[in-house]
Amino acid sequence: MDRSLRRFFAYALVGGAGTAAHYALFLGLLELRAPVLIASCAGYVAGALVNYALNHAVTFASERPHREAAPRFFAVAALGLLLNLSIVAIAAGWAHWPPLAAQIAATALCLLATYTLNARWSFSETTARPQP
Fold it and tell me: Cα 116 from chain centroid?
């Protein structure tokens, strides 16, 4: 199997831990009657925190120092959050999908977008500066 395909599958598997945290908080907040977008945002942030350490160490086995990788990862996560909230707002608000269905669609699209950006920028081996 191609290295980038293996890395994508590792990203998706590692992302399962972050997705579990995301959905647990999302569903819990919905149960408490929080607005859908607040629940989605809070869940996304929780998932990003879980995913950073796992992706740095496991998925990308990055040698990029945390002081460089973390800001990049969280910039990508912020873009992913905007994409996530946009999809949930359109699907749940405008299209009247059930909140969970809207979140599942957003998760799938964000997976592809954030993997691409993290692989090419956040943890990129070709742009990492050598450590002194």
Answer: 11
